[in-house]
Amino acid sequence: FAKRAGGQQVHFFDEAQALEEQQEQLLRQRIKEGIGRNEFILAYQPKVDMQRGLVIGVEALVRWQHPERGLLQPAAFVPLIEDHELVEELGDWAIGESVRQAAAWLAAGVKTSVSVNISPRHLLRADLVDRLAFHLGRFPQLHAGVLELEILETTAIKDFAAVADFIHACKKLGVPVTMDDFGTGYSSLTYLRRLPVSAIKLDQSFVRGMLEDAEDRAIVEGILVMARGLGRKAIAEGVESVAHGDALMALGCTLGQGYGISRPLSPERIPDWIAGFERSPPWRGTTVAEQG
Ligand code: C2E
Ligand code: MG
Ligand code: MG
Ligand code: MG
């Protein structure tokens, strides 16, 4: 009897799994259509020099303006396509759109670089560097450094040789690469030393915890010492309050990004936000609502 019940359970599980896979496949189909119908948009979150009161760039963060379900955050759809060709399509769109937006801001007198998150699968595409050059080539008034990339530490460890080649090629093209979510992938000093990334971004989990948790603080300190020793810039994400900014600056980390500085904003709001921030140094932790 137990065997039979077990068998039925397995059968039920298979069916549930098949149904889930079917639904995910449908959603992927919708994502593909959504790209064609221009349903995806980018929000831009400022990255600043907290000490000097300067904006050093903005990070492009994808959202899906779904006609029925409203505005969807990346967590609702990016994981579903990470292992599919679709993530390359969406990523290529994000690069093209970011470069176009940078050119539009420049035409309006606002000079800022835009960093784009690149998925592991997209990163390993042989023609990615050519695509970067293609998108930049459409706007000869932009210098290559206007585009920056953020890659994950975990990808760099898994496919070290390919990722190292990619970063070298980006450097040659003039596109700086940052290692995102640093500290979550347990990569060693040796890895970082051999990868010519211009900056590392401290993962927000450590930054958020550093005020109350001595261990998070120790990790932040350790990463900052290491970055300095290897001659790389360090930027903190998850700066949620003035206290976080102060604690980071006390440790010599002056570059930050987080809700305490600004939420991700629609592109129309970026020029005024930059002007306002740079008009009123030092940083006092003005918070702004997203997408307003
Ligand atoms: P990420 O690249 O590490 O981006 C930072 C995420 O943290 C963003 O969430 C941002 O809104 C959020 N954040 C910023 N400051 C704070 C803060 O002070 N506190 C807290 N709690 N959160 C903060 P978002 O936009 O939901 O993006 C989540 C992740 O989705 C990104 O993590 C990135 O891995 C991925 N993603 C976003 N846009 C793209 C894209 O265009 N392509 C790909 N492949 N992935 C993307
Ligand atoms: Mg990022
Ligand atoms: Mg990050
Ligand atoms: Mg993250």
Automatic annotation (TrEMBL):
The residue ranges of the EAL domain are: 24-278
Q: Which domain of life is it from?
A: Bacteria
Query: What is the protein named?
Result: Diguanylate cyclase (GGDEF)-like protein
Q: Which organism is it from?
A: Variovorax soli
Query: What fragment of the full-length protein is this?
Result: 266 to 557 of 559
